Amino acid sequence: MRIGIYGGTFNPPHQGHLLAARFALEALELDRLFLIPTAEPPHKELPPGSPTPADRLAMTVIAADNLFCPGISVSDLELRRSGLSYTADTIEAIHRQYPQDELWLLMGADMFLSIQNWHEPERIMAAAHLAGFARAADQEDVLDQQADWLQAKYGAKAQVLRLYDMAEISSTQLRELLLRDEGWEYLAAPVRGYILMHGLYGTHADLKHLNVEDLRACSYSMVKAKRLAHIRGTEEEAVRLARRWGADEEQARKAGILHDCTKYLDLEEQLQLCEKYGIVLDELEQKAVKLLHAKTGAAIARHVFGMPEAICSAIFWHTTGRADMTLLEKVLYMADYVEPNRRFEEVEELRRLAYSDLDAAVLRGCELSIADMAERGQPVHRNTREARDWLREH
What we know:
19 helices; about 55% helix; elongated
């Protein structure tokens, strides 16, 4: 197996880091690539006001997840080790873990040109090959010369990777831009959301008065990347249904953006939020984690993002439904059910029904949910039964 190792402060992890990682994965035919945030880099001090190591790790995990590239993952190896983060120690630790595999250490041009000055470089090159990124044509000759010199001096195998068409920005430049509320295009949207939610890099976003783009970024930062297609699909479907039935389109959009924001919290985390926000749970809800994200998502929408009650209520009921639902509640319930990424036997029929008879569509959705739960031997929440019965009677 061929393993890439790409370390750095990732302060913050930006598109240049991610595109370089993806390029290296393909160019070097790597089976795996580890992004490794450093704790205390020995060659420079982190600038004042830098995020904590935990925040830099969290942002790097989010950034890697949004690459949708299974071969790329994040390691907290250096953050778990106390003291300065020496690359030689990291490389040898990974070599011990993968003794039969071929390691490639990835680095920018400046690092590639100065590796002989690092702490015990011979240990690094004894355990790993080197790959340096050339981001401009005028760097190519000097990097090739360095590769030849490293081979002659240390017996190192070194390769230059040419990334000429990639927009380059340093983390220092990006941090300066973020202070002026600029440079967001260099970050994946969920990383932007994480920065806003945690007030990093001098940002002071008012989370209760975000524009739609920032609200979307914050929501995306809270979930796995694989969920984003569904969330965006639900958002757009909610807007279309709101337009068809005369609901508030802006409220429908924001409800769609936030409806799954706590989807990936485990049962303990969900219960902690319920306790924090005074959410009363019945016996089934105390054990069924899948029922809780609607309730905790509504609480986050209300208390963190300042959403009006109509939006919070739509999020609260979007999983189970309830008797006598409001128009916006019905719109979100059906948008979640029939958004374009959904695939099940009756989805096309249900989509048509949602635009011809909304009540009939919600009723059919409740019936399908009840039948599905019964088929799987799972208990059905009483609110779903009450929603079905109310719609049958009205």
